[in-house]
Design goal:
- It contains 13 helices and twelve strands.
- By secondary structure, it is an alpha+beta fold.
- The chain has two domains: 183 residues, no CATH class; 122 residues, no CATH class.
- It has a six-stranded mixed barrel with strand order 4-5-10-7-9-8. A two-stranded antiparallel ribbon has the order 2-3.
- A hairpin with a 2-residue loop joins strand 4 and strand 5.
Length: 410
């Protein structure tokens, strides 16, 4: 018997019991759809983490002032306020793994233009900040050394600030007041989106660091070239662990910290933290897919159960076919085709539901999903494999029936 005839007989057998065939496929449908949705959710989480890594900048560490103890009370990170621009220059000069160091001053305040105002984060930075954060200017220009030395009253705005104050208008060349200090807008940053903590990175105003210290943030930052943090970008391929150890040793020497005493700085490897989160997301994606694949196993067991029932119901038919010349191989092939057809149809329906479910999750839960073509191919392949694996035993049982005993079956 040729393959086309076998397929036609198998499809006729399935069509006779439409409801039973549909219910048998339900397990495969749910399993394939669940696997696709779970993989899409997992890959969406990984994509979000990768975006966060890119938004921070690669090979990035952040140095913060350390904690201190006053009257027996330990204060938090940043309490010492001992970091300075000179520390950043020393790190850039003496640690060969470091590509660039960007000191930053942070504050907040009201930004006013015309009858519009907006409260946002204010940061004083140097030109190295844009290289460290890999943050380009989409419109206008970045800061240069002349802006630093002259403490020029100029600003670069984040996209969220532009939207709140100017809407669709071009802000470059406009004068705004930053904490009542008039400043000229010279540039607009590219959009960065949210950070890993959910903070809007585009809700920011950048000023030259000397302008921020001397004219805007004022006495809050003092006059000793103090900074709130140092952004440290290491060279591509450099050993970040080795760089971290050298930086810690250099800071202990500069701040005259004795052996065994508490360090004067806190150094955080942001790339390492996000890579750990990415690994966790990858494990979560695999776990979700594994849990969802259990329903595929249940669907396969359902196929085996129904095929065994079908063999019992059609025993006389099998005996009659074998009596008129059908070989055991033909019977085996027929039941395998029936089981595989059930799985494949269920797999195709499951793929459609999985794609739709992924889009629905992205829309309703505002959660990014990423459909993987490989996942869809594997799902349909796995569905076919389920049909063959769980359909083989019933098909083998049918093919081994003796014609004389099958014809006597009531």
């Amino acid at each position: 018997m040729n393959a086309l005839a076998t397929l036609r007989i198998a499809l006729n057998a399935l069509r006779i019991n439409k409801l039973r065939s549909a219910l048998t496929m339900l397990g495969i449908v749910i399993g394939v759809a669940a696997v696709i949705v779970m993989i899409a959710i997992g890959h969406g989480a990984q994509a979000r983490v990768e975006e966060q890594i890119k938004s921070l900048g690669s090979n990035l560490m952040i140095m913060l002032p350390g904690s201190t103890t006053a009257g027996g009370v330990r204060l938090g990170t940043g309490a010492q306020q001992r970091l300075s621009e000179d520390d950043g220059m020393a790190v850039a000069r003496e640690v060969p793994e470091v590509q660039v160091v960007a000191p930053t001053l942070r504050g907040s305040g009201q930004i006013v233009v015309g009858n519009q105002n907006w409260s946002t984060q204010i940061q004083g930075v140097t030109p190295d900040y844009f290289e460290a954060r890999e943050w380009n200017v989409s419109n206008g220009r970045a800061f240069d050394d002349n802006d630093m030395s002259g403490a020029m009253k100029i600003v670069i705005l984040g996209q969220s600030v532009v939207q709140q104050l100017f809407g669709t208008a071009d802000p470059v060349g406009q004068v705004i007041r930053v904490r009542r200090v008039p400043c000229l807008v010279v540039g607009v940053l590219e959009s960065k989106g949210q950070s890993m903590s959910g903070q809007d990175q585009d809700d920011i105003v950048l000023l030259p660091i000397n302008t921020a210290r001397n004219r805007v943030l004022g006495s809050e930052q003092g006059s000793l070239r103090r900074v709130n943090s140092l952004l440290i970008k290491t060279r591509a391929g450099a050993d970040m662990k080795a760089a971290e150890e050298k930086i810690r040793a250099l800071m202990r020497q500069r701040h005259k910290v004795q052996d065994g005493a508490e360090e004067s700085i806190t150094l955080r490897n942001l790339t390492e933290m996000l890579q750990a989160q990415e690994a966790s997301s990858r494990v979560m994606a695999l776990l979700l897919a594994a849990v969802a694949s259990v329903s595929l196993l249940v669907g396969g067991i359902g196929i085996m159960n129904i095929m065994l029932v079908s063999v019992t119901e059609r025993t006389r038919e099998i005996g009659l076919r074998m009596a008129v010349g059908a070989r055991a191989r033909d019977i085996l092939q027929q039941f395998l085709v029936e089981a595989t057809t059930l799985s494949l149809i269920g797999g195709l329906v499951g793929i459609a539901l999985g794609v739709g479910g992924s889009a629905l999750v992205a829309y309703l839960a505002d959660w990014p999903t990423a459909l993987e073509p490989l996942a869809i191919v594997l799902a349909i392949g796995f569905a076919a494999g389920i049909g063959i694996f769980f359909g083989y035993y019933p098909a083998r049982k049918a093919s081994r029936l003796l014609p004389i005993e099958a014809l006597r079956y009531e």
